[in-house]
Design a protein that fits this description.
The protein is of the alpha+beta class. The protein contains 14 helices and 27 strands. The chain has an eleven-stranded mixed β-sheet, sandwiched between helices. Strand 1 and strand 2 form a beta hairpin. The longest helix has 26 residues. The protein binds one RNA strand through helix 1, strand 13 and helix 10.
Length: about 500
RNA sequence: CGGGAUGUAGCGUAGCCCGGUUAUCGCGCCUGGUUUGGGACCAGGAGGUCGCAAGUUCGAAUCUUGCCAUCCCGACCA
């Protein structure tokens, strides 16, 4: 492994790519646009997944699993959704290979094994799920149906980037069915709140909750709620979405229920999802020139203990102290590792764990133990302190909380400093070019204006914030009247 | 998918223009030893389909074509 990481300020994009690979989160694979999530990256995903899963269950949802393949006829049933995803679908057309008669040892697709109907590899699962729900829902007593699935999906993107946009990615998708419009909207908002709580509290990434404009809306949705985060290079990242689907899918798949008055009604739907893209958000929100900065609550490893041996006789003494500390920390539920590997010296280990973003490093040598202390280094501020071994476990536990809070506060300050009001188009362009970040500006509410602004500035409307104050003004582009500001940004 | 660039050991690279002994160097790896408070040192050693495939040639890392992958700029993208 080479020592130097490209500097964040020199080339943000290169810094990001190198960081993902060098910190062992993920790697490119032999398949175009698809990544291998390595053990360290997968451990992070597992921590995120487990917490989200807990929050879904606390809000009444259960998990199920639906097929990877969607017959084309089902996929095309909801037209808006199908058209929205059509150009990025992988399609299975055959079910068998055979030996190539002209090329020994090679295989060809067996032309006789052509499928009667093509299978679409799910880019999202509304179609197969709503086709299934039709058989599950007859009465209002079957509602609400609150189901989530953890799955992989495929979207054949032209240009991919590790975690941020891969052809295959892992995610969860919730699909719920409700008796009333009000209840479905309530669910949609509830889940965008769950996402915001998770991302802010566990990933320490502040987000803005909002609603998408019509042109940024999910294909097939009546309304798309989202959480938008700001990366350190001033670009926005959509971190999660929750869709109110109205009765679109119920009508497309003919899902009706009898209400209390025995009247047949179409059900109301929502769907919501977050993906491994969140890991990209985590990296770009917190990391620095030394590497990743993991928020303690989801860090695969929270504390690493590095021994510093001086002569053979010191080894058993340090080992014993370290094991004692490790066990005490484990008893408090802290994820800790004692790295006594002898193939790297302390300095190398320090740099390595900084690259991986481990929140706390404890260095333990004879010099320390003679004074009943250890050296504690925190990753977020890179501060080193000498701490007494008496009460060290409680100290470290509290420090993890403090680091979590500090990382969040730092990201929040950065985010807040990078929301700027623009009152003219010139001002907007200037701010986007010189500062980046979110631009709060009046918009006339039309797709035409939105499109023109996008063409001229590459900035899109990220969202209309949920708690937006109502304020009379004029659209920065068209000069027409507007009732509120919306957030524009260049985005990933 | 359009324009540009790149691909040589696990990583980073020299050689390619101008074809010709055994493919260069550093890091890492293995063995032994000395070490260990910010990416150790000495000695010895292993590791190569030169991205893949075809072509030109007596001979290809080097020239030609196709393909694959990665990066940058576009287009595309909830």
């Amino acid at each position: 492994m080479s020592k130097e990481l490209t500097k964040r300020a020199d080339n943000y994009s290169e810094w990001y790519n190198e960081l993902v690979v060098k910190s062992q989160l993920a790697d490119h694979s032999a398949v175009r646009g698809c990544m291998v999530i390595k053990p360290y990256g997968y451990a992070l995903w597992e921590n995120m997944r487990d917490q989200l899963d807990k929050m879904f269950k606390e809000t009444g949802h259960v998990n199920a699993y639906f097929p990877l393949f969607v017959p084309k006829s089902l996929f095309e049933a909801e037209e808006t959704n199908a058209e929205g995803f059509a150009k990025e679908c992988a399609v299975v057309t055959h079910y068998r290979l055979k030996a190539d008669p002209n090329n020994k040892g090679k295989l060809i697709v067996d032309p006789e094994a052509k499928l009667e109907e093509e299978l679409v590899v799910r880019p999202t699962s509304e179609a197969i799920i709503w086709n299934t729900y039709k058989g599950w829902i007859q009465s209002y007593r079957d509602l609400p149906l609150l189901i989530n699935q953890w799955a992989n999906v495929v979207r054949w993107e032209m240009r991919t980037r590790l975690f941020l946009r891969t052809a295959e990615f892992l995610w969860q998708e919730g699909h719920t069915a409700h008796a009333t419009k009000e209840e479905a909207i309530e669910e949609t908002i509830k889940m965008v709140n769950v996402y915001a709580d998770f991302v802010e509290e566990y990933m320490a990434v502040p987000v803005i909750k909002g609603v998408k404009s019509a042109s940024e809306r999910f294909a097939g949705a009546e309304d798309t709620y989202c959480i938008e985060a700001l990366m350190q290079d001033g670009k926005a990242l959509q971190a999660g979405t929750s869709h109110f689907l109205g009765q679109n899918f119920a009508k497309a798949f003919d899902v009706k229920f009898s209400d209390k008055n025995n009247k047949l009604e179409y059900v109301w739907a929502t769907s919501w999802g977050v993906s491994t893209r969140l890991i990209g958000a985590l990296i770009m929100a917190h990391s620095d020139d030394q590497g990743l900065v993991m928020p303690p609550k989801i860090a695969p490893l929270q504390v690493v203990i590095v021994p510093i041996y001086k002569g053979e006789e010191s080894k058993p003494v340090i080992d014993e102290k370290a094991h004692g500390m490790m066990n005490a920390l484990k008893a408090l539920g802290i994820r800790v590792k004692y790295d006594d590997s002898d193939n790297a010296r302390p300095g190398w280990k320090f740099a390595e764990y900084e690259l991986k973003g481990v929140p706390i490093r404890v260095a333990m040598g004879m010099r320390d133990l003679e004074n009943n202390v250890v050296e504690v280094a925190r990753r977020d501020t890179k501060e080193k302190q000498t701490i007494s071994l008496d009460g060290i476990t409680d100290y470290l536990k509290n420090l993890l909380d403090e680091i979590q809070q500090n990382i969040y506060n730092r990201a929040l300050t950065f985010r807040n400093e990078n929301i700027r009001e623009a009152n003219s188009f010139d001002e907007m362009v200037k701010l986007l070019d010189e500062k980046g970040g979110f631009i709060s500006a009046h918009w006339d509410g039309t797709a035409e204006t939105e499109e023109k602004i996008k063409e001229q500035t590459k900035a899109t409307i990220r969202c209309i914030p949920l708690d937006n104050k109502q304020e009379e003004g004029i659209c920065v582009f068209s000069g027409k009247s507007s009732r509120e500001r919306v957030l524009f940004a260049r985005a990933y």
